[in-house]
Amino acid sequence: MKRILFAGLILVILLAMCLIASADLIPPNLLKAIHMVETSGRFGPILGDHGKALGPFQIHEEYWRDSRVTGSYSQCADYNYAVKVVTAYMNRFVPYYVRMRDYEAIARTHNGGPNGYRHQATKKYWAKVKKELTK
Fold it and tell me: How many Cα atoms occupy the beta-carbon half-sphere of 55 within 13 Å?
């Protein structure tokens, strides 16, 4: 009986760890929608915003620095690295909205910075992302 209880406890702990670990991820469909809005789904060293933004998510250097992801800014041209940057940035500045899966707050933060979800100007960006999510 003790073995069964111990095994059950281990299972509960592992399940909790999986839930906690996945709680900080940005949903793939939201990443895809942001990617489509930013670069029409293109990959590589895409420059935008008059050369101030880089890669599939059009990450600015300050955004990259604020994410605190190790590496170099030029790596933002790589999709997988850029996902790490976006994920780290969101978990640093809007962790509650990441846990709550608040797509709007995440998208608007991506577009407008740490408090972007509060800015009126990011509502148009959210409308574009929302449209991509329904495709």
Answer: 22
